[in-house]
Sequence to fold (106 residues):
Amino acid sequence: MAKTDKDQLQKRSELIAKAVKRGEKLERTLTKLVAYSDPGSAAESFLKSVQEGLEAIRKGAKSKGAKPAIKRTSDESAKKPTKRKSASKKPVLAEAVPPTDTNVSE
Fold:
């Protein structure tokens, strides 16, 4: 059974969205690295090429009619802080009770 054009377009759209999402994460990481690096470092040139690649992917997706699920620009992603999910949520006690010392001989 052959795949239909709709299935192929959907798969392509999913792959583009995945690539853009990963590219944006790489861009954020490289931006932080560039902040700690010397001006003109390899990290800075790599960041510029990643940003250009993301723009090209977004433009290519728009011209072909496929719309990726994520449509953030590099400016928006740099402004929004990322929220990390905590591994486990433990209940917090309202008041801590200090331990009592039972061996007081005074």
